[in-house]
Structures are given as C-alpha cells and as structure tokens.
Write a structure and sequence with these properties.
Chain B: Keywords: Acetylation, Coiled coil, Cytoplasm, Cytoskeleton, Isopeptide bond, Phosphoprotein, Ubl conjugation. Chain B: It is found in: Cytoplasm, Cell cortex; Cytoplasm, Cytoskeleton, Microtubule organizing center, Centrosome; Cytoplasm, Cytoskeleton, Stress fiber; Cytoplasm, Myofibril. Chain B: This is Dynactin subunit 4. Chain B: Its main location: cytoplasm. The complex is a heterodimer of chains A (376) and B (429). With 376 residues, chain A is an alpha+beta fold. Chain A has 15 helices and 15 strands. Chain A has a 6-stranded mixed sheet, with helices on both faces. Chain B has 429 residues and is an alpha+beta fold. Among the domains of chain B are: 1-24 and 315-336 and 354-429, no CATH class; 144-200 and 229-254, no CATH class. A 4-stranded antiparallel sheet of chain B has the order 2-1-18-17. Chain B has a 4-stranded antiparallel sheet with strand order 6-5-11-12. Chain B has a two-stranded antiparallel ribbon with strand order 3-4. Chain B is elongated, with a radius of gyration of 33 Å. The chains are: A alpha+beta (376), B alpha+beta (429). The interface between A and B is large, with 116 and 100 residues. Bound molecules: adenosine-5'-triphosphate, magnesium ion (MG) and zinc ion (4 copies). One zinc ion (ZN) binds at residues 14-16, 18, 35-36, 38-39 of chain B. Magnesium ion is lined by residues 22, 140, 142, 283, 330 of chain A.
Chain lengths: 376, 429
C-alpha cells in the first residue's frame, strides 16, 4: 500500500520550506521555486471565539504562542501541505523583530510541530540573493513599518539601519481620517480601506504634491464610486492624497526619502555612491502606482536641500528590479538562498531542545551590540 | 449536523490542557491517555482534489505544486469553475442556426464558466478548447530562467564557502560565521571596508554574469491617471491579485483561472508512544475513521531504532473556572459493553441492572440518563454567566492491546477530567 507521508517526508528532507511572516501578509513556499505557493493574510480564526484575529494583535507571549500554533497549523496542512515533523524551515525575519517573537516562533516550531531545523535569515540580506550582487541598499516598505539596511559586500552595515512606522497601516489610517472628515457616519473597516487604497489610490508626483492644498492646486483626478450596499464616494482628492503621509516630513524631519539619505550619510565615504546607485525597493507598499518615481524625485530634490547638500555629493540614484513582484522579493531571496544548503546556519531541533534558546548569532540586533562597541 | 454548531456543553480536559468535546478527543490505547488534535503529531497522509476527488501519491503532488490538473478555481470569486460546451466560433459566421442547410457538423468547443459570478474564459479572451479536459494555456513565470541562474550561482558560492570553512578548521561552536559573502559580523565588516569591490565569482564560474544592473530609468506615473475616469468594477482586489503572486494582474480581464489546490487527509500519532490514534481512510470519498476500532495497527508503528526522543510541549493552562459544586453519586454506574446493534433495535434488553432510581432516570441500549445535583456558588438568578461544574470521571477500560500481545486482557481504570456547562440559573428552587 502507498503510504502518503513517505513521499512528503522525502520533500521535507530535501527542500526547505520558506516562510516570510509579515505583519500583514505571509508568503510561503519551497526553496528552489520561482514564486511563493501563496500569499495569505497573517491572521487566524480563533477556535474559541470564532473571530478572525491578526497575529500582530496578540496580547502577550502566551497568546502569541497559541495564535502561532493555529496559524502555522493552517500553513502546514492547508497551504504548504507538508508534514511539519522534521521539516527544514527557513524563516525570513525583520532585523527589528523583537526577540520575544523569534523565541516564541522557535518554541512553537520545535516543541509543537517538532520541525527538524530553522534557519533565521535577515530579510534585507536575503533580498540581495535575488539580484546576484553583494552590495545594495535595501528599503522594505510593508505594512507596519519601513526598514532599511545597506548591505556592503555581503555584510549588513548595521550602524546605518533606519526604521520608521511608514507603510500600509499608516496609509489606511490616513484614509480613514479623510473619510471621517468628509462625513461622520462612515465607519470603514480596515479591509475596506485597504481595498479602496489598492484599487483607486496612487502616489502622486512631487510636482503636484507641492501644490496640493494651495490656491493653485491642480485639478484632482476623477472621483470614484465604491460599489456595494454602502456606496462610498472616493473623491479624486482622497485618491491622490492617501499616500502623502509617507513623504511628509514629520517633526524630526523624517520620511521615506530621508531614511535613504540618512543611511547613506552614516556609511563610510567610499560606500556612499555605490549604495545610492544600487537601491532595491521591496515590500507591498512599493508596488503602488507612482511610488518608485516619486521616491526618485524626492531623493533628487532632497540632496539639493541644505540638510544634505554639504554632507553628500551624490548626483544620481539607481534602482534594481528583482525577478519578482516586490511584495514577495524577500521570500524569493529566501527561496534562492535556501537551496545552498549551508548547515552551519541552521538551528537544529537537537540543539534547541538541549539549550532551549535561540542563539545570538541569528540576531542582527544582538550582533549590533558589538557593532557599537567596535565602531564608536 | 446542527449539534456541531452548538457550543460545547461537555468538555474533556486533555492531558495537554486543551478543553475539547468528545468528538474531538482521541484515546491512545497504548498510553491509556486522552489525546487531542493539539497534542498528537499530525502528518499529511494523502492528497486529493475536493472537486474531482482525484487522489494522487505525494511524489506527483509535489511535481504539480499541490494542484489538480483538471479543476480550476474562478479567479474572481474563487469558486470551482465548470466546463461548458458550446459551438465553435466559426459557426457564428453562418448566420441563422435554424437553417437546416448548414452541412458542416457543428464543432463542439469548451470554455470555463463560473456559475456564481458568471466569469467566463471567453470574456477573459482565453481561446476555447476542443477537448473537455486540459489543454488550457498555462502562465509560465517569465523569470524562471533568471532565477535558476541565480540558484546555480548561489550553489557555487556556498561550495566555496564550505571549502573555506574546512580550510580554516572552522569550529562549529564559535558564535559567529566565518568570512563569507553572507556573514554579518561587524568586526569583519571593518576589515572589508576599503577593499575594492570585486565579484567573487569571476574566476570560478564559466556561467555568464548574473549580476542585476541598476538603472536610473523608472516608470513614471501615467498622466492619464489625473484625467481618465476609472471603472472600479474592472479593477482587481488585492485578494484576487494574490491568488496568482507572480502576475498580480490589476485588470479583471487579465485574471486567469488557477488550478484547484489539493486538500489533505491527516494521520494522528500519539507523541509519546508514536502509535496511531486515528487513521483516516486513504480513499477520499469515505469519511469513515477507524478510531480505536482497528484490530491491528502494528504496521504503523515505527521500528524502535528510528524513534526519536519524544518532544514534549508544556501543557496549556486551563482557563475555565467552575462556579458550582457537584454532589457525586455514592455508587458506581454500570453500562453494558457497547452494542452497535442497540441503536437500531428497540427490543434490546435492559440487562436488568439494579439501578438506584434516584441516580438513573432512564436507560436504553447504549444510553443512560442520570441525575446529579449541582449547587451554584452564586445563586443570584440575574447572573448571566453559565453554571459550570468540573469533576473527574473514572471508568473501567479493557486493555485490548495486551490481548493482542497474547497476554490476558487487563482491566484498568481510566480517569478523565470533565467540565459541564449546565446552563444559566433560571429560578430559585
Ligand atoms: N499588489 C499590490 N498592490 C498594491 N499594494 C499592495 C500590493 N500587495 C500588497 N500591497 C500593500 O502592501 C502592504 C503589505 O506589504 P507586505 O506584504 O510587504 O507587508 P508585510 O510583509 O506583511 O509587512 P511588514 O514587512 O511591515 O511586516 C499592505 O498594506 C498591502 O495593502
Ligand atoms: Mg515584510
Ligand atoms: Zn491534547
Ligand atoms: Zn480536480
Ligand atoms: Zn466566480
Ligand atoms: Zn501513546
């Protein structure tokens, strides 16, 4: 008789399972494949209350543990369809991931699902595997935040990292504020706001942006009527202004474009031009129409600004295109890297069960501690 | 079926701390312990298409990326598409189908249609097929060749790294990685700065350079966006885009049907002793589960040499708080051995048990109704909280595993913790 799981075990021994568990969307699939098997929301139906809960909304570590058990169970048995026991897992992780998240996911993976090994790969580092180069400035604009780490000759330049709470979430909040200003009785769920954003909004040009709200404001784009039981008027103004929050400099003068220039300023002189000419944009928010061209104009305008004019001698910015859609480029980097089979980087079940902890070497932030002590 | 949607009034406490209704409880006949979906080790057993019921071995499923080659999902609403037969488009040229003079036999063609949202492969501009199954154009990932080149490049890099490690007599206990393209330690970084940028692969590989080239050229925002009205019903939702990650089409008519995902049947093993606790049939049409009934299950036990030390997970804290006391009966209750025929047989005898009428209200066949007294802690009838009691039930169990091993069957006592939700207080007695 044919025993199904033997075949599956063969796969799991051979091929790594690659997860990029984002704050909003999870990308999953197998190492060596050209695209993820799927992209799903990072959420799960709570078995008790039957309500949908996002993983990022966990109340404490214990709650996170249970949510991850439910979520990973879905991933293993419904989406990736593989027996988790003894499987080899590659987890892409944000450099800013809190240690408690990494510790909890390792515990769920090893103690609940009995996976064979986990390789933690920093997402910015993984990204350059999609380009076949070893130096790039990686800007990831996803849901909760925008993060940036320059990679120079294969090594993350940690002291230059940047992070701001700029991404899909803040755009949704911005949209909600616009709708609330229009009328008090529209209360839109975040799912509807995201739908409106994805289907009708765009990043406008720098030129028009400077005139928005002034007396010679350009004619707004056409309004759109959002269909459904609750018809909503999406004004052209909202469509154009939804993403402006990403470019407005806050009280500390920070925005997406200052992140790039600030990172470059923090790097040694001989790295700067190379980094400015090797930018790669990843994360779902960068897929918005007009995003990349606006970023480029913002950067070109900003280097002329007094803030940077004397510090930076950069004339041009160049961008890479990965063989993927930006919202799964990080995943693809993991899927390419995961074929290389470097056992040294893996945390195995045996080691984990002996030590009950995730060692420091998998953490960029932990490594950063000695960064400061060496560099400053 | 309706009772499946009801709240769970009776919940068993599994050894892992989960509270589950009896329909979700397994019993390990080897450990003589209750197990549940949370604490058993689950494995993918077989794959099947929920639409055409095709059942494939895992090796093939793997090649087909876990998708059914015959069935498609609607790219708009994700329901299963049906194949419809129609007449070949060439027939349309001959106007007036009633005309009996048409000599050519109409050629049958097939297209895909969604009966829920009315999406059709014709509207999407996909050519009709002359056979009912298969033949639909597949969308290849345009980057496959490039990605394969990148994979080869990384494999070479990795082998160089491995050689370097061996040469340096790398100690695996050292906390940091050796000098590699991928290491991320700050001390190494300092040494690297100032060295000329050189591609590590030049001499080693004959493969063409795979380095991506950055460019200043960026697609500008189309001016149309400021003037052209948009029809939102023709723009895809993110959910629709994500069904096909490598394309993520923005226009509805660019969506393509996606192959239906296989579902899996799972097997459950006790994590302590690795015996199966329930085994679904390999045949997907059947939903029979041979729980506890299989006479022989020894083939499913792995030989002891390959068994690993069981991994134990910390039990979950039990969050339910009983708010009433239960007055336990003084005598034991005797149930006859389970008799499957009794369900259909009205005449089955009542065994003439000498029941205490205060305890046993009624009994028939496999069922007995007993009365127990509950004293709520809070007797305020306005309290909306349900009354919950917790107790331990002890019952005899004949260890049939021992019988299989040619030992005499052993009768053991099994204890189970239970919580009963007996509803709200309605009136003071
Ligand atoms: N094809 C698309 N077009 C437009 N917007 C998109 C697209 N795909 C994703 N997004 C938007 O990008 C955001 C999600 O991006 P991504 O998947 O990179 O985030 P994440 O990895 O979950 O978040 P983070 O990295 O911050 O934890 C969402 O706000 C989503 O609305
Ligand atoms: Mg992300
Ligand atoms: Zn259990
Ligand atoms: Zn099928
Ligand atoms: Zn449909
Ligand atoms: Zn057991």
């Amino acid at each position: 008789m044919l025993r199904g799981y033997e075949g599956v075990r063969y796969i799991s021994d051979k091929q790594m399972i690659v997860f990029d568990i984002g704050s909003a969307y999870t990308k999953f699939g197998y190492a060596g494949e050209a695209s993820p098997r799927g992209i799903i929301r990072t959420e799960v139906r709570c078995p008790e209350s039957k309500k949908i809960r996002r993983i990022i909304d966990h109340t404490d570590v214990e709650d996170l543990y249970q949510l991850l058990v439910e979520f990973l169970h879905l991933l293993f048995f419904k989406y990736v369809v593989v027996s988790p026991k003894d499987a080899r897992i590659l987890l892409l992780e944000s450099p800013l991931a809190v240690t408690s998240f990494r510790d909890t996911i390792a515990k769920v993976m090893f103690k609940h699902f009995e996976v064979g090994s986990i390789l933690f790969l920093p997402s910015h580092l993984a990204t350059i595997s999609t380009l076949g180069i070893d130096t790039a400035l990686v800007l990831d604009v996803g849901y909760q935040e925008a993060t940036l780490i320059p990679i120079f000759e294969g090594i993350p330049v940690l002291k230059a990292w940047q992070a701001l709470p700029l991404g899909g979430q803040i755009v949704h909040e911005n949209l909600r504020r616009y709708f609330n200003d229009m009328s008090n009785d529209i209360d839109l769920s975040e799912k509807v706001l995201e739908d409106i954003k994805v289907r009708t909004c765009f990043v406008t040009t720098l030129e028009r942006s400077t005139k928005l709200g002034t007396k010679d404001a350009p004619t707004p784009p056409p309004d759109v009527m959002y269909p459904g039981v609750q018809r909503i008027l999406i004004t052209g103004e909202i469509r154009e202004k939804a993403f402006e929050i990403l470019w407005e400099r806050d009280n500390d003068n920070l925005s997406l474009s200052t992140m790039i220039l600030d990172a470059i300023v923090k790097c040694p002189l001989d790295m700067r031009r190379v980094l400015a000419e090797n930018i790669i944009l990843v994360g779902g928010t960068t897929m918005t129409k007009g995003f990349a061209s606006r970023l480029k104009s913002e950067l070109l305008a900003l280097v002329q600004n007094d803030l940077y004019k004397n510090k930076l001698k950069i004339q041009s910015f160049k961008f890479h295109t990965a063989p993927s859609k930006p919202n799964y480029t990080v995943w693809l980097g993991g899927a390419i890297f995961g074929t290389t089979d470097l056992p040294l980087r893996c945390l195995t079940k045996e080691i984990y069960l002996k030590t009950n902890r995730v060692p420091d070497w998998s953490s960029l932030i932990d490594n950063q501690k000695d960064e400061t002590s060496y560099e400053v | 079926m309706t009772y499946l949607n009801q709240p769970d009034y009776v919940r068993y406490v599994c050894n892992c701390g989960s509270l589950k209704p009896i329909s979700k409880i397994y019993f390990c006949r080897h450990c003589l312990m209750i197990r549940c979906g949370y604490c058993v080790c689950q494995k993918v057993d077989s794959h099947y298409c929920p639409n055409c019921m095709e059942n494939l071995p895992s090796s093939e499923v793997r090649l087909k990326k876990n998708k059914c080659s015959n069935c498609f999902d609607c790219p708009c609403c994700f329901q299963t598409l049906s194949t419809r037969a129609g007449l070949a488009a060439t027939m349309k040229a001959t106007e007036g189908e009633e005309n009996k003079d048409v000599k050519a036999t109409p050629k049958k063609v097939y297209y895909l249609f969604c009966s829920l949202c009315r999406w059709s492969s014709r509207d999407a501009g996909i050519p009709d097929q002359s056979v009912a199954t298969g033949g639909w154009p597949e969308q290849e990932n345009p980057h496959t060749t490039r990605i394969n080149a990148l994979i080869d490049y990384h494999k070479i890099l990795a082998s160089i790294e491995k050689q370097q490690c061996e040469r340096k007599k790398f100690h695996p206990k050292r906390p940091f990685m050796p000098t590699t393209m991928y290491s991320f330690t700050s001390t190494l970084l300092r040494k690297r700065i100032g060295r000329p940028l050189k591609p590590p692969m030049q001499s080693q590989s004959t493969a063409q350079p795979v380095s991506s080239i950055a460019t200043e050229e960026i697609e500008e925002l189309s001016e149309d966006i400021f003037t052209e009205p948009i029809d939102i019903t023709k723009i895809t939702t993110l959910e629709q885009r994500l069904q096909h990650p490598e394309v993520q089409a923005e226009k509805i008519n660019e969506l393509r049907p996606q192959h239906r995902q296989f579902l899996v049947k799972r097997s459950q093993r006790c994590r302590v002793c690795e015996h199966n606790v329930s085994k679904s049939d390999l045949c997907p049409q059947s939903i029979k589960f041979k729980i506890l009934l299989a006479a022989f299950e020894s083939p499913s036990l792995l030989p002891s040499t390959v068994r690993q030390v069981p991994v134990t997970e910390d039990p979950k804290p039990i969050k339910i708080i009983p708010n009433a006391d239960l007055i336990l009966p003084h005598s034991a209750l005797i149930l006859p051995p389970r008799d499957d025929a009794a369900e259909y047989d009205d005449t089955s005898d009542n065994h003439n048990f000498q029941d205490d009428p205060k305890l046993v209200v009624w009994r028939k066949g496999n069922k007995a109704v007993i009365r127990l007294h509950v004293i709520p802690n809070d007797t305020n009838e306005n309290n909306e909280e349900p009354v919950i009691v917790g107790f331990v039930m002890q019952h005899g169990y004949v260890n049939t595993i021992a019988a299989l091993e040619h030992k005499s069957p052993q009768k053991v006592d099994v204890k189970v913790k239970l919580y009963l939700n007996v509803g709200q207080l309605v009136d003071k007695a």
